[in-house]
Every structure is written in structure tokens, then in C-alpha cells.
Amino acid sequence: MADYISKAMSFAENAAKLSQKVSQGLVDNAIEIGLPGSDAGAQYFDTSEEKMRNIRRQLDSRNDREKMDGLKRLIAMISKGRDVSEFFPDVVKNVVSQNIEIRKLVYIYLLRYAEQEPDLALLSINTFQKDLGDKNQIIRAMALRVMSGIRVPVISPIVLLGIKKCVADMSPYVRKTAAHAIPKCYSLDPTQEDSLIEIISGLLKDRSAITIGSTIMAFNEVCPTRFDLIHPYYRKLCNMLTDLDEWGQIAALDLLLRYGRNQFTDPNPNGIKVPKTATLSSTKKESFYSDSSDDEESTEEVEEQSEVEDVELDEDHSLLIKSCLPLLQSRNSGVVMAVARIYFHLAPSEEAAQLAKPLVRLLRSHRELQYVILTNIATMACSRPYLFHGYLSQFYVRSTDSVFIRNTKLDILTAIVTEQNINSILGELQQYVKSPNKDFVASTIQAIGKCAMTVPETADRCMKGLMKLLKSTNDLVVAESVSVIKRLLQIRGNENTQSIIRLAKLLDKTTVPVARANIFWLVGQYTENISAAAPDILRKGVKGFTEEHDVVKYQILTLSAKLTCLNPGHETISLLNQYVLNLARYDQNYDIRDRARLLRSLTLPTSAQAEKSDSNDDSHVLSSHLKQILLSDKEPPVLESDMQDRAEYTLGSLSMMVKHSLPGYEPIPDYPQEQPDPSVRDVEEDFWNSVGQARVVEQGFGSDSFESRYRDGSGRSPASTAFSSVEARGYNVVHSQTPKAKKNGEDYDLEAFYNDTSEEEETLSSEDSEATTSEEDSEEEEEDEDEEESEEESDDLDAGAEKRPLRR
């Protein structure tokens, strides 16, 4: 009975395993066939231990299907960030597989882990070299990519040979991969620089837009200052800008910017010129309802003000600017910023006006990119604010904007403020003051102060608005208001009595140290205007001196010294001065003690010092100049935006964003004092055009000589691979039935060789014309029924003549 039960249990287990295998096989077949409802990729992301243990077995299997499953599972693990380098030896063995799909997956894996396992990757070098001659262009490209990714200096000559071979490949994709391998080879072995520069020089002749972008990237990495290589191809690069891919366009624009700053003179030698359109548009609203005579006078004034001698640009300089213009409509923000960099650093100021609209268009993207664009706009607005006068509403702050975007927009608004738009900007800033975010309100108050200092005519209006903010219950808002009012009062001069007295009344309410220090400074600076109230203000400050912040203590000591200097015989002020100096003498802060010691020697001379002063000793000469020291006129502060610190860096660079030079940053060169020789770009005829519209690529397919393809002298081409290489490069080639190589002296006349019309075709056309003439004569002579028969016979003869092979 027990045996029967055990047999039944084993039978049930075997049946369960069999059903599981059958179901798994059905699922796999459904995935292979691609039935609807089957997830073909989700199975490879299964990271269970059982699946991971089967990978090694699948990689060692002889079945290509199991190898594919194992490799796909490894690639899925790599995409999830899991380290699967332990399978490197098992994967390398499959590099010789005859299945193309398996080799593709193996190369993807090797690209990821070749740097971590260089010794094991060296075992497959021979396979990589063999795959450089594979029929599949993807295999050739991936073989070079993996081989250049092995970071072992010993194989740098092999990598260089592979690059030279792939540079002459018929596929532009393979040549692009070769261009990408050049920087890797250079970083691996810098001694190969000369050979790599020669390869780059050859790749610059390529007319494929796929290849030329990667070539420029390699040029920027290996030899960014070798502009002599760019001279013959400068105009070609300008004309190919719109055909390059987006990242190739960015690299090309960066190269052309450095080239232009090195080869062209300053397009704005007389300074930044404000375009007439910008000036007229700013005055258009005011002159709309005015008399026509007034409009004409204002227009004449604007023209007189904007008259600056126009500088004639070099033809190649103008070509670069015109070639970049269509790229402002690119959907890639990096391309638009690269064009903006050229127009800002290299173009005349009139041309730079075209930047505003494309940059404003980019502000509709996500907030990170929006912040970068706004920062660049703010940097440009510091030196050329007229560019963005017409897009004022685009920089208004929205409720959904982040803090860093809000602050940047405020910087832009204060940079582009003028007499024409000051009312709109101040009206907008007044709404921002009502925001519940107190930090944003403080930034807005600072912006109001900057607007008042930029346009002094609106200082009184700004002052009234800031005075109303002094009633706020928020200490931060009050402190910022007092700080801005202090700057504005310095601009106004001596007409500050009522404003200072109103600020002095806040000493009983405000507790912010910065606000209290600014009030005491204003009282001391303009104490002559408020001589009646100044002693009482000093009394309030001395009363709570020990509880004040250090910043406030400094200003109380200075106020006491100023009042003593102006009122030397006033007993109350002298007692207050002596009292506050005694308090400061024992303060915990040594800076305050030093300040008190200095002011004591100036305002309270001892008896010994008095005797020395009577004897005309120069030791106490400072006391005689006390008023000039303490009450000298202070220049109004100059507010500089944080964006001005970024102006010294290249527009759009990361160093400009962080406001300091980063590793790898190179500033753009200065303009030359004299115009370099423009004839270096005058090439008689481009190398690619010198052999006609089609260039036969011989490298990698046999001998380079012309004789090798026409050994029998008959002019027949033994192979068509050379012509297929021409088609791969994107040129239209007409294959004649019997091409002939004609000699012009000792050299071959290639123009005759590639001529679309051969001698045989001319002979054929002459025969056709004679046949046509005979047909017309027969039609005129014969008018009976034989006329149709003769016509049919002549048609048959003509058709037979066309089908006959040509003879020499």
C-alpha cells in the first residue's frame, strides 16, 4: 500500500512539472509569434534567483534561442542598474557567434563592461578586427566602438588602424562611429595626436551630414585651436548647418563661434548701437495722439541719436550670421542657445534683436530649462536691455512660478526698465507686494528701489509706496523698506527732514537690527537738518544700548560722536557721549571696544592731550579734522545686479550659471586688432567637386590606382562595389553600360569618364535621326496602302536597332 502511494505521489509531481513546462513553452511560443496580449519584454525583467541561475546555462547552450534569452535578460538587468559583470567570461565566448542578433547583444554588453574587464576583452580583439570587414554596417560600427572602449594603452595602435579603416568605409554610419572613436583613442594615447589630426582633416572633406557633426566633435576634443584645418571647409560648414543633427549643430556652432572671434574683427567697434526700431517702438505709444509735426521732430531726434557709422562685415562673417538664422526655429533649446551665443558675441547689435522672440518661446518649457533661459536673458539684458522691451509681459511673475524663477524675473524687469515702461513695471510690483510670501515681498521691495534709482523721476512715487509698507506687521518687510528708503534718501540730498523723522518714530516699534541701524545712520548723517530731534533720538539709543545688536551699537556710537562734534559745548550731549563710551568700554565684542576707544580719543581729550594741543603738537591732529572725518558726504550707493557677475563668462555656459570657471571652460578669444587674410578660405575648387559629382571610394576594396580597375584597357569595371560606395555617400551616379577611361596626355580625363553622354550614345542618336528622316520621306512619297506597311517595317527596324548591343 505504501509503495502504491509513493508511486502515485511521484506520478503527480511529474505531471505537475510537465504541465508547467508545457505552459511555459506555450507562453514562449506566443511571445515569439507575437500574439496579442503577450508581453514580449516583461519576462526579461524577472530578477528571481531561478532565472538568474539559468543565465549561465543559457549562455553556454548551443541553441541560439536560449543564448538570445540569456543575453536579453542581461541587457534588461543592465537597464535596471544591476551589476552583471560576473557573466563577462560567458558573454565574451559568444562574440564569434554566426547569429547577427546575438553578436549585437554581445557588443552592447561589452560596451558596458569593457572598461571594467579589459584583460578579458583583449581576448576578443582578433574577432573585433575581423568584424571590421563584416557585411553588416552595424556590426562594423559596434566592433570599432567596443574596441575603442577597451581602456588599455597597449592596443592604441590597433584602435588607430581600425579608425583608419572605418574612415574609408562606404557607410556614413560607420564613418560617424570612427569619428566618435577618435577622442577615445586620443585620451588613451595622446602620442597619436598627429595621426588623429590627419584623420580629422580627411573626415572634414566628407559631405555626409551624419559624419560631419561627429567630426566636429572630435575636432573640438583633439585640436580645438587648429583653425588652419577649418579654413578650406568654413563655407561648407556654414551651408551644412541646417542639415546636421541637433547635437552636431551645437558642436558646429561652438566651433564657428571660436573661429569667428579669431578670424573676424569686432562688428561693433563704436559700441553697442541701439536699433532704430527699438527706439521708435518705445516712443510709439506716447506719440500716437500727438501732432504729426511733433512726431516728425521726435523721429528726427531719434535718427540723429542713433546715427553711428555702419561697419561693413566680411562676406564670410555675414555668411555665418545668415546661416545661423534658420536654426532659431529649432525645437532643441540647446541649438537656439548656441545660435543666441553667436548673435550675442559675434553679430552686430542690429542683428542681435532677432534673439528675443526665440528665447521667449523657450520659456514655455519645464521650469528647470525655464530658469536657464531666464538666467541667460537676464545676463543679456544687463548690457543690451533693448532686446526685450517688446516682451515685457512675458517676464511678469505668475503664482505657479518657483522661487528661483521669481527672483530671476525680478532681475530682468529691473534691468529693462525705462521711462516708457516704468509705470507698467511699478504697477506690477505693487501687486507683488501683496503676496503672502514675505521673502518674495522683500525681493520685490529691492526691485522697487532699483527701478527708482534707474529712473530718478519716479523716486518720489516709490518713496511714498515704501513709506506705506512701514506699517506692515512683518519685520522683514519693514527692514527691507527701511534699507531701500535709506538708499533713496541719499539720492534726494538734503530734502529728507520729514522722511527721517517719520523713520525715527519706528524705533519704538521695530526690532529688526538692520532697520534700527539704518535709522540711526540716517539720523547721524543728516543731523544738521534735524538738530532739534537728534539729541532725543540719541537718548533712546543710549537707554537700551546694552540690549542692542552689534550692528546697532556701531551706529549709536557714531551718532553720539557726530552730535558731540557739531555741539561741542552742549552739556547733555557730552554726558550722553561719555556715558555710551563707558558702556562700550566693557562690551563683550572687541570691535565695539576698539571703536569706542577711537571715538573717545577724538571726542573726549584728556588733560595731557589738551596740554599737547596747546603746545602745537601734531599727535592730536585728528581731533582738528573730526568734522571732516565723521560728517563727510557719502556718495549714493550703486546697485549692481548679480547678473553682472555672469557677464564675464560665455553666454550659455555652465560657468556662467555658477559664476566661476569650471574645469574645461575656455573663454572665447578676443577679436583681432587687424582683419586676418580672408583668402585662406578662398579654395579654387573643393576637393569633392574637383572629380565631378561622384567620387569613387577605393580604400578597403583594392588598389588605389586607376589602372587596377581597367587592367584590360577595355574600360570595363570588374566590380560595382566602388559605385555602391558612391551611392552610400549620397551622390547620384549614372552607370553606363561600357564606361571608358580616356587619357588626356599621361593623366586620365575624369570629366570625360564621368560624362553622362558617351560616344556610343551619340552614334545611336545619329542613327535614330537618319531613320526618322527616311520615315518622313517615305510618308511623303507613298500615299497608298503600302505606306502603312512600310511604316510598320521601319518601326520594327528601329526597335531592333535599339535592342542591338553597341559595337566599337
TrEMBL record:
**Cellular localisation:** Endomembrane system
Coarse class of the primary localization is membrane
The record ties this protein, via Pfam families, to:
Adaptin_N
Task: Please report which protein family the annotation says this sequence is part of.
Answer: Belongs to the adaptor complexes large subunit family.
Biological process, per Gene Ontology:
intracellular protein transport; vesicle-mediated transport
Q: Which domain of life is it from?
A: Eukaryota
Q: Which PANTHER family match?
A: ADAPTOR COMPLEX SUBUNIT BETA FAMILY MEMBER
Q: What is this protein called?
A: Clathrin/coatomer adaptor adaptin-like N-terminal domain-containing protein
Domain (Clathrin/coatomer adaptor adaptin-like N-terminal): residue spans on this chain = 50-603
Q: Which GO terms describe its cellular component?
A: AP-3 adaptor complex; endomembrane system
Kindly state which keywords UniProt assigns to this record, in alphabetical order.
Membrane, Protein transport, Transport
Q: Where is the composition biased (Acidic residues)?
A: 292-309, 757-799
Q: Which SUPFAM superfamilies match?
A: ARM repeat (SSF48371)
Q: Where is this region: Disordered?
A: 283-309, 707-808
